[in-house]
């Protein structure tokens, strides 16, 4: 098995299409197919902030659920959109408002279809993927080595939001501990969530959220090759959104 793990997309569909082409995928019937049978793996946060969140959801749904040719794990933005679609109380802020605006512009039939697709995508995907064929774990914001193979409320919070302290930065973002510094495992942990200017390798972890929606890049990490592939963003660059 060979995989192409793709960082946070956040509605940046043109960059996703360009990344697939750069990685050698062919487009057939509106879907990317690699001639060598490689498997795309999405680290979550498909939607919010970018211009084409609904189209990204539809594409990933087709790949993961209909074609069984890709893997997906949810991110914190996915979790919030899931709660919105389940009619739970959520604040339409921090990018969710862009997705809900797109959603409300759809016809009633299209709204129902997109909602059903996204709910199914989240419900039928694991919180994190363990991929033994390439000695890797894919988790949206990361995972502690000792938690791999387990699931509870604490682990879910960590996987979706990172190692948060409960404190807030002046701009409202949560304070996060640098958990990767303490990872001592021999499996790759591939994650996103926190925008970095370049892929961030620490021990045997790599953060591939390179802030596409903030003007950075959309990044993929290919295994077993341990190769990075990137395409530049078409979005305006927002310096303060990058942590490293």
TrEMBL record:
InterPro entries assigned: Ap4A_hydrolase, Calcineurin-like_PHP, Metallo-depent_PP-like, MPP_PrpE-like, Ser/Thr-sp_prot-phosphatase
GO molecular function, one term: phosphatase activity
Annotated ranges, domain Calcineurin-like phosphoesterase: 1-195
GO cellular component: cytoplasm
A Pfam family of this chain: Metallophos
CDD domains linked: MPP_Prp_like (cd07423)
SUPFAM superfamilies: Metallo-dependent phosphatases
NCBIfam families cross-referenced by the UniProt entry: PRK13625.1
Name the record gives this protein: Calcineurin-like phosphoesterase domain-containing protein
């Amino acid at each position: 098995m060979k995989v192409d793990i793709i960082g946070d997309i956040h509605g940046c569909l043109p960059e996703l299409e360009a990344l697939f082409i750069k990685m050698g995928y062919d487009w057939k019937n509106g879907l990317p197919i690699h001639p060598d049978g490689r498997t795309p793996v999405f680290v979550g946060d498909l939607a919010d902030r970018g211009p084409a969140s609904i189209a990204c959801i539809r594409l990933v749904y087709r790949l993961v659920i209909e074609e069984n040719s890709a893997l997906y794990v949810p991110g914190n933005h996915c979790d919030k959109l899931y709660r919105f679609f389940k009619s739970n109380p959520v604040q339409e802020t921090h990018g969710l408002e862009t997705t809900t605006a797109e959603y409300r512009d759809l016809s009633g039939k299209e709204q129902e279809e997109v909602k059903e697709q996204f709910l199914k995508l989240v419900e039928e995907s694991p919180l994190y993927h363990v991929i033994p064929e390439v000695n890797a774990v894919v988790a949206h914001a990361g995972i502690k080595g000792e938690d791999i193979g387990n699931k509870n409320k604490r682990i879910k919070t960590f996987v979706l939001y990172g190692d948060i302290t409960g404190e807030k930065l002046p701009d409202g973002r949560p304070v996060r501990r640098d958990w990767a510094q303490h990872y001592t495992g021999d499996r790759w942990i591939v994650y996103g969530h926190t925008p970095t200017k370049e892929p961030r390798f620490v021990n045997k972890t790599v953060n591939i959220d390179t802030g596409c929606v903030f003007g950075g890049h959309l990044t993929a990490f290919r295994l077993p090759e341990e190769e990075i592939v990137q395409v530049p963003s078409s979005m305006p660059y927002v310096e303060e959104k990058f942590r490293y």
